[in-house]
Amino acid sequence: MIRKESAANEIEGIRNMGGKRVKEIQVAEIILAIEKLCIESNYNLGVDIMRGFKKAMRDERSPLGAAILERLIENAKVAEEESVPMCQDTGMAVIFVEVGQDLHIVGGLLTEAIDEGVRRGYEKGYLRKSVVKDPFDRINTGDNTPAIIHYDIVPGDSMRLIVAPKGFGSENMGGIKMCKPSEGLEGAMRFVVDTVDRAGGNPCPPIIVGVGVGGTMEKATFLAKKSLLREVGRHNPEERLARIEEELLNRINRLGIGPQGFGGVTTALAVNLEVYPTHIAGMPVAVNIGCHATRHKEIVLQGRIGR
Amino acid sequence: MSEALRIETPLTQEKIKGLMAGDNVLISGVIYTGRDAAHKKMVEALEQGADLPFPLNDQIIYFVGPTPAREGQVIGSAGPTTSGRMDAYSPKLIAEGLTGMIGKGLRSQEVINAMKEHGAVYFGAIGGAGAIISKCIISAEVIAYPELGTEAIRRLTVKDFPAIVVIDHCGNNLYEIGKEQYRKP
After folding, report:
1. Reduced to 3 DSSP states, what percent helix, strand and coil does chain B have, rounded to the nearest 5?
2. Under 8 Å between Cβ of A284 and A222
3. Which terminus of chain B, N or C, has less C-beta within 10 A?
4. Contact at 8 Å (CB) between A59 and A250?
């Protein structure tokens, strides 16, 4: 009896960390949010990209290139109006989760909840199931799971969920190079531009070019991927890096690849660069290419005071 | 953009000779879907001397894996997938009589050589425009490899399917021509 009471006190103590009651979130709420974001991100083009298309139409010198941009705008409108996916490659569900460290997740396991949300969203939204269980045997899992989940612990008591379905036409054209420090900024830029040049029309240009420089091998590729979430037209807040983004965009749009690779001056709508401290002996440079839809939708879920 | 040429399938050698890289076309008639897994199976069937799901002669394969259709829809979103992944298989199918491929993205020199040798055309459809492309598909029926799901072979009837001749039977390549025209040092 005494022991039971002390255990209860201990739990109460944890609930009242620092005199603050811990907020809770039910996994059921997370499942519904993921389901909705999977569908929305595949049906509705971002307003930033639509703005980018319209600007590119004014600048594009190739008549065929301009006609393609017009078709892409029409495609986005039809997808939204008729609630159908913009593209048949509805992607592998890449999900970024920022969990406030003062939030308690209840009712089940977070990773399982996210996969359940993906399973429901891809079924209900008539999205294509494009995931195979094993890279060698290649048998489809039938429900587009597992998702690729990136967790981050952040201050606060809410949870931010970002769903970014990634098609493999663009994913296949990325690359990483462990550059030597002596190659410098010029070497890093050359690798980025060469990667885009080699990709040609494969990743469905006009593309968004995500670039991650520094850290370790996996950190650089993660930064490149994460940078694709940035609003098109918004530069890195650091002036020096914003100038590098501009220079890269300029060089890429001089390649001549153009919309769909048929020639033109609109090869990329944006270059997003993120950097991170790295080792004295290295300079990893990663490029992750996003297609002209570069889909992502997000929501912030607030925790509630627990019982 | 130039006025579109209307072409009807089957895509005979005579029709191929009238198509040049950069031409805008509207394709009508029967075409077949096939992507990675179906190509692998077709080439394995050829190597074993087995029958193919459909005779390749003068036919077009569209590299696509559509999304599931809603009730009342013929097909879901159905834009082209990256053709380069079919490069390992396409020359064998072209040698068997295939005359057209619809996809997006670069092709290998081996594919282009086979196209020149046997007479075939590579068309580009707009990648990522699956919602509007599906409107040109008026019927769809799975005819082989149903176990592959989205990758199964479907017989499609299309009406005015918009495409661009990317590589013609002489090997002229719009990807090279277009890039050259707008490339700046």
Report:
1. 30, 30, 40
2. no
3. C
4. no
- B150 touches A at CB < 8 Å: yes
**For position A306, what pLDDT does the model report?**
76
Residue A274 has pLDDT above 80, yes or no: yes
Residue A176 lies in a domain: yes
* Position A127, amino acid: L
A75–chain B Cβ distance below 8 A for any pair: yes
B10 close to A (CB below 8 A): no
pTM: 0.94
pLDDT in tens, A103-120: 999 999 999 999 999 999
CATH number, residue B162 = 3.20.130.10
Question: What mean pLDDT is predicted for residues A76-91?
Answer: 98
Mutate which of B74, B87, B126 to test chain A, going by most A C-beta atoms within 10 A?
Answer: B126
Query: What is the domain count for chain A?
Result: 2
Q: Is residue A78 part of a domain?
A: no
Sheet harboring A92-100: ordered strands across?
A148-154, A92-100, A158-166, A297-302
Closest Cα of chain B to A228: distance in Å? 17
Residue A11, pLDDT above cutoff 70 = no
Cis peptide before A203 (omega within 30 of 0): no
List, in order, residues 6 or more apart from A154 with CB less than 8 Å away: A98, A99, A100, A101, A160
For residues A177 and A162, state if they share a domain: no
Residues A28 and A143 in one domain: yes
Residue A76 carries which side chain, given as an amino acid letter? Answer: A
Q: Cα Rg for chain A, rounded, in angstroms? A: 22
Which residue range forms the structural domain that includes residue B116? Answer: 5-182
Show residues of chain B in contact with A127, CB under 8 Å. 67-68
Categorise residue B136: left if φ over 0, alpha if ψ from -120 to 50, beta otherwise. alpha
Q: What is the pLDDT of residue A166?
A: 98
* CB A169 within 8 Å of CB A128: no
DSSP assignment, residue B167? E
Number of CB atoms found within 10 A of residue B159's CB: 13
